[in-house]
Amino acid sequence: MGKLLDSPPVWTILMMAVAWVQVAVTGPVLRGTGVSLIGWVFVAAGIALTVAAAREFQREKTTILPHGQPVAIITTGVYAYTRNPIYLADALVITGFCLITGAWSVIVLVPLFVRVITRRFIEPEEGKLSARFREEFNAYARSVPRWIGRRDG
Q1: By the 8 A CB rule, do 150 and 82 touch?
Q2: What's the whole-model pTM score?
Q3: CA atoms 14, 45, 40, 88: torsion sign
Q4: Does any domain span residue 16?
Q5: Which of 7, 50, 105, 115 could connect to 89 by a Cys-Cys bridge, CB 3.0–4.6 Å?
Q6: Is residue 10 part of a domain?
Q7: How many CB atoms lie within 10 A of CB 86?
Q8: What domain range includes position 36?
Q9: How far apart are CA 47 and CA 113, in angstroms?
């Protein structure tokens, strides 16, 4: 089971499955065309963010796999705004799915996902980057937040 949980997409699917079960058991709480439309916007944004991030990995010819050994630090494109655009995209997809299905569990699932992904994947990945590209990574980490936004200096 530990090996299975060692994949971020599995965690994304797991969170969506919990939302689906919650809706199956308690029924949808969030309803309406507007809520569903907002959900689809979140899902589309997540997909677009994943594609943009994957292109940066391709351009830099470094691994996209969480447990792989990086050969470069990506600081351009979406990585200029978040150090973890793919994980942010996953959180957007989970949020969108919960809105589309009417799951109230979005309130706990997204923060839980963020915590699990940070501990299980982001912290070890950043450790590898810091060990291999010490000064360059530390400067990048000081200027770009882990999740979203833009910092100067």
Answers
A1: no
A2: 0.90
A3: positive
A4: no
A5: 50
A6: no
A7: 24
A8: 29-143
A9: 17
